[in-house]
Structures are given as C-alpha cells and as structure tokens.
Design a protein that fits this description.
The protein is an all-alpha fold and 52 residues long. Helix content is 88%, strand content 0%. It has helices at residues 2-29, 34-51.
Length: 52
C-alpha cells in the first residue's frame, strides 16, 4: 500500500517538473500551447504504458 502512494507522489512530482519546463519553453520560444498539449499527452501515454 505504501509503495502505491510513493509511486503516485513521484508521478505528481514528475508532472509538476515537466509542466514547469514546458511553461518555460513556451515563455522562451513563444510558440503557444502546442508544447503543453504534446507533453501532457506524452505523460499520460507514458504512465499508462509503465503501469500496465
């Protein structure tokens, strides 16, 4: 049970880190929300693949 919560915590940290990086990219390159959408899709895809 503890391990499950640890995995959720690590996943949340990962999401926050990646979202922060993506937002920085948007601010620097000013290319709109495409990066954000692409990363969210990739994160969801990766988490589904890693859990199953």
């Amino acid at each position: 049970m503890k391990r499950k919560y640890l995995n959720i915590f690590i996943f949340c940290l990962m999401v926050v880190f990646i979202c922060g990086r993506v937002l920085l990219e948007i601010l620097i390159k000013d290319k709109g929300l495409y990066f954000l959408h692409d990363s969210i899709y990739r994160i969801i895809n990766y988490s589904i693949n890693s859990t199953s």
